[in-house]
Amino acid sequence: LGDVEFVINVGDSFYPSGVSSKWDQQWESKWRAVFPQETRNVPWYSVYGNHDYHIDPCICTDDISQCAQVNADEHNLNFFVMPNYTYYKALPEMDLEIIAMDSNQFMEGWNHSITRKEHTFADCSWTQCEDTCHDRAEKRTSASFDLFYDRMAKSEARNLLVFSHYPTDYYAGGAPEFLDALRTQEKNITFFGGHRHSV
Predict the structure, then answer these.
(1) N or C: which end of the chain has fewer CB within 10 A?
(2) pTM
(3) For the segment 108-137, what is each residue's pLDDT rounded down to a tens digit?
(4) Buried (b) or exposed (e) across 86-118, using 16+ Cβ within 10 A?
């Protein structure tokens, strides 16, 4: 891999419904068997996409030890590196900090007329806990924004690599202040998002 130190994985990793546990055979069939060992010899920093939550217990509990994709052990490269649903990782040798955000509350952000309060995680209907899923998704998105602003203020790194499952235009209606913050001249910010099935 040359000088590649890590991979950024923007979610929807296991289509169409995620994985149910760390013993789910899809870890093998849809990741380990697809990407050679050489590619998996570096950390894959990851976030949850909307499809990842369908059968994953994570959206139905506040106990992250129950989350099928959460893995805080950076030496265990049999799984993605995802210590929490939102997190940061400082890489001082690169003058870089990685900020990972769970913003699934913005799943319908393609509709720029929706206000922040009107945003909802539509895929809660596919989970085992639709009644509590919406509240948990909103709290995780809020926690992700809080983490972003906190690290913007406190990080000593000149370079920030920020990523979530959703592309920047999904925040235009409900979180324009977030887009303004990404444009700051105080840091060099690179943002990665996914979700779209064609580019």
Answers:
(1) C
(2) 0.96
(3) 999 999 999 999 999 999 999 999 999 999
(4) bbbbeeeeeebbbbbbbbbbbbebeeeebebee
